[in-house]
């Protein structure tokens, strides 16, 4: 049963990181191609909420001694390391000043690391509440935070509060909840829901920045009660799409299942390649219908490559702050010499 559960979530994580990479590749073309914009909005409706929900599901051991320290070492140190690397990258590729090296303003997708750290800390007070109270308080907080202009991308505070309900939902969910939605009826319903969400993104015009959760209502042009109503509507849409995604995730082992254990590598490293593509190839790309297929192939190539054992071995010292694969390789070679 444990192996089955692991396969299921590993499959889910790989599919989600695939969508993360694909979404970032799409970003360069959404302003000139409506279909790319609709697809982009559709993906952003649920891919990060689903990732965050999984993170909450696996945070159930936060009461164990040393858990917070372990999370801090795993998230905060890589955050600072990659802040520096991204600043150097921006300096070289985009001619930005190194003064952009501000540890308070997460580069690219590094917001997830700092928010994940805060979500784990917030479990200390929220876990004392019943599920429904935790969800009510987190939702009300997220709705009210939108009215505070000073809470923005700094330390990813806005995203931390906006996506907190997804993290808490994952924390309170149990294995049987995921099994419940994977019935035949659940899968058919999930397909219809996802189709409905895509049609919503197709017919209803809205600022895609709203899906990021990183800005106040006023910065998005919304004021008054209607702004909170829109965010609440987005929660309903996001949760519906997220659970629909989980209903369709396969449970058996596939060739990509093991790569689901290496999503952090893909998440932290793919941005460098995409930044390079945006400043070189994408600038002169004559985009057409066949380009979508090319983007999908690029996504596959990038995701599979960054999930490889070689990339994990080389980058493990700065991502996980350990050299397990390198030591194993050296030890294995020494053993073969002895034999």
List strands and helices in order, with pairings.
Elements: H1 2-26, H2 34-57, H3 67-93, H4 111-126, H5 131-145, H6 157-162, H7 164-172, H8 175-180, H9 184-203, H10 225-248, H11 263-279, H12 289-306, H13 309-319, H14 324-338
Helix pairs in contact: 1-2, 1-11, 1-12, 2-7, 2-9, 2-10, 3-4, 3-11, 5-7, 9-10
Word description of this protein:
This protein has 339 residues and is an all-alpha fold. It has one domain (2-307). It contains 14 helices and no strands. It has helices spanning 2-26, 34-57, 67-93, 111-126, 131-145, 157-162, 164-172, 175-180, 184-203, 225-248, 263-279, 289-306, 309-319, 324-338. The two termini are 39 Å apart.
Identify the notable features of this structure and list them briefly.
69% helix, 339 residues, 0% strand, globular, mainly alpha, 14 helices
Task: Write a brief caption for the model.
This protein has helices at residues 2-26, 34-57, 67-93, 111-126, 131-145, 157-162, 164-172, 175-180, 184-203, 225-248, 263-279, 289-306, 309-319, 324-338. It is mainly alpha-helical.
Question: Approximately how much helix is present in the residues?
Answer: 55-70%
Strand content: under 5%
Low-confidence stretches: 333-339
Distance between the termini: 39 Å
Shape, per Cα inertia axes: globular
Q: Evaluate the radius of gyration.
A: 21 Å
Mean model confidence by pLDDT: 89
Structural class: mainly alpha
């Amino acid at each position: 049963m444990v192996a089955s559960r692991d396969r299921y979530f590993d499959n889910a994580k790989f599919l989600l990181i695939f969508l993360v990479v694909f979404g970032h590749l799409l970003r360069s073309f959404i302003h000139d191609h409506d279909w790319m914009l609709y697809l982009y909005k559709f993906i952003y409706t649920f891919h990060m909420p689903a990732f965050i929900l999984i993170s909450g599901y696996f945070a159930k051991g936060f009461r164990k001694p040393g858990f917070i320290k372990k999370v801090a070492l795993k998230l905060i140190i890589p955050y600072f390391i990659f802040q520096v690397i991204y600043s150097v990258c921006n300096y070289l590729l985009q001619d930005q000043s190194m003064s952009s090296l501000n540890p308070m303003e997460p580069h690219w997708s590094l917001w997830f690391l700092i928010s994940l750290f805060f979500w784990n800390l917030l479990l200390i007070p929220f876990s004392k509440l019943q599920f429904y109270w935790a969800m009510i308080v987190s939702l009300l907080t997220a709705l009210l935070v939108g009215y505070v202009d000073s809470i923005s991308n700094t330390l990813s505070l806005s995203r931390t509060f906006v996506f907190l309900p997804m993290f808490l939902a994952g924390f309170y969910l149990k294995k049987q909840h995921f099994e419940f939605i994977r019935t035949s009826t659940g899968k058919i319903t999930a397909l219809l829901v996802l189709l409905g969400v895509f049609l919503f993104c197709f017919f209803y015009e809205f600022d895609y920045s709203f899906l990021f959760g990183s800005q106040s209502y006023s910065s998005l042009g919304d004021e008054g009660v209607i702004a909170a109503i829109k965010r609440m509507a987005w929660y309903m849409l996001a949760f519906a799409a997220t659970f629909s995604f989980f209903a369709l995730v396969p449970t058996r082992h596939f060739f990509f299942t093991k790569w689901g254990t290496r999503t952090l590598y893909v998440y932290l490293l793919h941005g460098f390649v995409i930044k390079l593509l945006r400043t070189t190839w994408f600038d002169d790309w004559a985009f057409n219908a066949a380009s979508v297929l090319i983007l999908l192939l690029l996504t596959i190539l990038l995701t599979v490559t960054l999930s490889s054992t070689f990339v994990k071995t080389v980058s493990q010292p700065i991502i996980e702050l350990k050299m397990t694969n390198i030591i194993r390789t050296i030890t294995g070679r020494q053993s073969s010499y002895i034999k």
